Amino acid sequence: MAVTNSEIAAIFSRIGDLLEIQGENPFRVRAYRNAARMVRGLSRSLAEMVEQGEVLEALPTIGKDLAAKIREIVATGSLRKLTELETTVSPGLVDLLQVPGLGPKRLKILRDYLNIHDVGELEKAARQGLVHQLPGFGVKTEQNILRELSELQQRIRRYLWADVEEIAEQLLAYLRKQPGVKKVEMAGSYRRRRETVGDLDILVSAAKSAKVTDAFTAFEAVERVISKGHTRSTVVLRTGLQVDLRVVPQVSFGAAWHYFTGSKAHNIAVRVMGVQRGLKVNEYGIFDKQGKRIAGRTEKEIYAQMGLQWMEPELREKRGELEAAATGRLPKLIVAADLRGDLHCHTTRSDGQDSLEAMAKAARALGHDYLAITEHSQHLGIARGLDPDELLAHCDAIDELNDRLAGIRLLKGLEADILEDGSLDMPDHVLQRLDICLGAIHSAFGLSEKKQTERVIRAMDNPHFNILAHPTARLIGKRPACRLD
Ligand SMILES: [Zn+2]
After folding, report:
1. Distance 460 CA to ligand 1 centre (A)
2. Angstrom distance (rounded) from CA 87 to CA 479
3. 469 C-alpha vs ligand 1 centroid, how far in Å?
4. List of long-range contacts for 62-66, beta carbons under 8 Å, 24+ apart
5. Greatest CA separation found in the chain?
6. What's the CA angle centered on 449, arms 447 and 454, to 5 degrees?
């Protein structure tokens, strides 16, 4: 149940990789890698050693700092340092590290010469024959890279949550229609609504497990069946997305649903609470000292045994939700029906997909009270940004439409570029005409934290400035957040 040595080792070696990509001091990088190797080869469980209060610093390669990190991982199932690093390094680059033969040094060359940040960009460049011309690369390396990439893409691909929603809902509806099926639910990161999803985990309870398994593997979007068993089957969909189906008895459905929903750190914390109460918590239920199952049918039962309220899956990330649930202070999540309007949208006047009028009517149909029209400013040439005269003419068009259209209020806005010196890409006398002004970073993402923060603060000092749009300028899975205090 406790954190295993290999999990701790994996965290350390990942930190080593991330630090190396960032060009950190090689000694620090090596310290993490050596620690990972030592932990992997250790015959005793570190979790046990921590529990028994042993001195971890006595282990080779483990100093004070790493010992504290091991204790943190054992206690929480994760490490803050890693979470922090993961937000600063582009995930696409981390994936590239897994290509055999591509170390951080070569990654740096690919980035510097060809602006390559993820697997897709590397594949394109290799196919165009650009890679073998780089210093330290040859034709053979380029061919190897192409061969490795095709395999890697299957292994590491993560999907945007929104991109898998449609197929996930179709699959659920399909399984729920099957005869003998009592309950079908999605678990995992999809249920927790993480930004990205690595695979789908589905739980089923059914009268006859063989029938539902047959139906699952016969689902029309399935490309191949990896395994098919009594309690667990795995398929790969045509999109490359892997789906696991587990057949679970009803008496332990809630326990399994809780367990497979995660997060891992949340689960570990719940299990620790169980241990403190003399209870064993696992995916089959909660068991007392005599081994009798005392909860498991519903998630509510599981939480109730810990003295906790049931909580939304989105909250289960070990960020204080257990403490909040224990004292009845869980937050109420914002849902779509809470939205009254939208303060950031584009029309075909800059880089949007629909006309001013179509956007206004769509917002009204959603039941919104207001919609701010916030085109790009001229600095963003690729998005057909507006110059001062064009913006003023656009304001007239918005006023005119407001007069004509009932049931929705349009706000005259702008998504002004925050230039590198912190000024806004539109003169004040034009900004004055607007109802709302967003400022956004679309260039010089890589400034130091100090410079980036100064730049944004200077923009905010403009009296017309209202909202910092997409504050960190990250693109999920593609571009890391810019450094901003
Ligand atoms: Zn923008």
Report:
1. 16
2. 10
3. 7
4. 62/35, 62/38, 63/31, 66/12, 66/31, 66/32, 66/35
5. 79
6. 85
Q: How far is the CA of 198 from the centre of ligand 1 (A)?
A: 27
* Residue 154, pLDDT score: 62
Q: Contact 414/434 with Cβ under 8 angstroms?
A: yes
- Assess contact for 244 and 251: CB atoms under 8 A: no
With contact defined as beta carbons under 8 Å apart, do 3 and 268 qualify? yes
Residues by chain with Cβ below 5 Å of ion ligand 1:
440
Q: How far is the CA of 442 from the centre of ligand 1 (A)?
A: 6
Delineate the domains of the chain, giving CATH numbers in brackets: 5-156 (1.10.150.110), 159-247 (3.30.460.10), 252-326 (3.30.210.10), 336-468 (3.20.20.140)
> How far does residue 470's CA lie from ligand 1's centre (Å)?
7
Least confident of 20-29, 218-227, 446-455: 20-29
Ligand 1 centroid to Cα of residue 345, in Å, is 10
How far is 34 from 454, CA to CA, in rounded Å? Answer: 39
pLDDT in tens, 72-81: 999 988 899 9
261 exposure class (CB count in 10 Å sphere: 0-12, 13-18, 19+): buried
Q: Is 343 exposed, middle or buried (0-12, 13-18, 19+ CB in 10 A)?
A: middle
Best CA proximity match to 9, nearest among 56, 49, 69, 53: 69
Confidence of residue 341 (pLDDT cuts 50, 70, 90): very high
State in Å: Cα 416 to ligand 1 middle. Answer: 8
